[in-house]
């Protein structure tokens, strides 16, 4: 079964990935991955945010990180891209501990990442085209003619060619997300991270953005890491789901396995029940 993306490209998409049929197996823990986090610990003052978190992200798959507010999901993303240094533990990216690198090496590593922030994080002084072109102009020596070709391809991929000359303030929330997604893709990253991509979107636009994420991943592959509170987003786009609570991973596996779990916390969080170990604190 398939559905149209709703962005005018006419492509068809799989409705989701909850079957857990990926050919990548969880047992291959000794295999080098694009991103792996081991025994990560991080505190801010008296608040422990990461408490020994270990997670190996499958390559060429979409992994969604779920969990209550304040469990460190966004902090995890900042560790992965080298914006936060752990108190202990390690983050390996493309086979190397990022904190054994010097800052120049970390900067080069970040060029292999794309990030979609909650509101797109567009530069208000630039139109959509220049926002998307910014990473290419800043980080490469690409000729301007080639930059324009790449940017138009990225805008076409997310259905925003007609909005190329608009300022961010003239865009809807969904359009800002798509512009941010185009910018995240423009350097052809091997890892793409999404920090609550559904934040601020209504259910219809959330569903359309989910379709777009699926469509782009099907075309380009890569390691996609998505943080969200939205259960339907996790069900629809994920190959794998990780649930984080109190700074550690309490469940990780194929999406279907998570939704069939009999673990009390997993059940409560995925169903939204008031009965269970998760309270208001």
How would you characterize the overall build of this protein?
- The chain has 281 residues and is of the alpha/beta class.
- It has a domain at 123-186.
- The protein contains 9 helices and 12 strands.
- The chain has helices at residues 73-80, 103-110, 128-139, 144-157, 173-185, 203-220, 231-237, 255-259, 264-271; strands at 2-4, 12-14, 35-44, 47-57, 62-66, 88-93, 96-97, 113-116, 191-195, 223-227, 240-245, 248-254.
- The strands form 3 sheets. The chain has a 6-stranded mixed sheet with strand order 8-9-10-5-11-12, sandwiched between helices. It has a 4-stranded antiparallel sheet with strand order 4-3-6-7, with helices on one face. Strands 1-2 form a two-stranded antiparallel ribbon.
- A hairpin with a 2-residue loop joins strand 3 (35-44) and strand 4 (47-57).
- Helix 3 (128-139) crosses helix 4 (144-157), helix 3 runs parallel beside helix 5 (173-185) and helix 4 packs across helix 5 (173-185).
- The chain is globular and about 55 Å long.
């Amino acid at each position: 079964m398939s559905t149209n993306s709703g962005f005018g490209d006419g492509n068809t998409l799989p409705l989701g990935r909850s079957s857990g049929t990926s050919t990548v197996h969880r047992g291959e823990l000794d295999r080098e991955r694009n991103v792996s986090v081991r025994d990560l610990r991080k505190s801010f003052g008296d608040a422990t945010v990461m408490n020994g978190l270990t997670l190996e992200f499958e390559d060429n798959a979409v992994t969604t990180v779920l969990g209550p507010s304040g469990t460190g999901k966004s902090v995890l993303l900042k560790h992965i891209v080298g914006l936060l240094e752990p108190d202990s533990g390690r983050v390996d990216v493309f086979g190397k501990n990022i904190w054994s690198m010097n800052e120049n090496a970390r900067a080069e590593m970040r060029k292999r990442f794309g990030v979609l922030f909650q509101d797109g994080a567009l530069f208000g002084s630039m139109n959509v085209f220049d926002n998307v072109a910014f990473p290419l102009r800043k980080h490469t020596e690409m000729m301007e003619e080639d930059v324009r070709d790449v940017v138009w391809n990225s805008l076409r991929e997310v259905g925003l060619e007609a909005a190329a000359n608009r300022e961010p303030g003239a865009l809807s929330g969904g359009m800002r997300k798509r512009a941010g997604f185009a910018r995240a893709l423009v350097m052809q990253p091997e890892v793409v991270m999404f920090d609550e991509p559904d934040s601020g979107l209504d259910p219809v636009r959330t569903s359309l953005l989910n379709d777009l994420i699926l469509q782009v991943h099907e075309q380009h592959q890569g390691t996609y890491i998505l943080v969200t509170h939205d259960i339907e987003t996790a069900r629809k786009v994920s190959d794998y789901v990780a649930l984080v609570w109190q700074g550690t991973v309490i469940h990780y596996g194929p999406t279907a396995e998570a939704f069939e779990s009999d673990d009390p916390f997993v059940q409560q969080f995925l169903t939204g029940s008031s009965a269970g170990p998760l309270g208001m604190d």
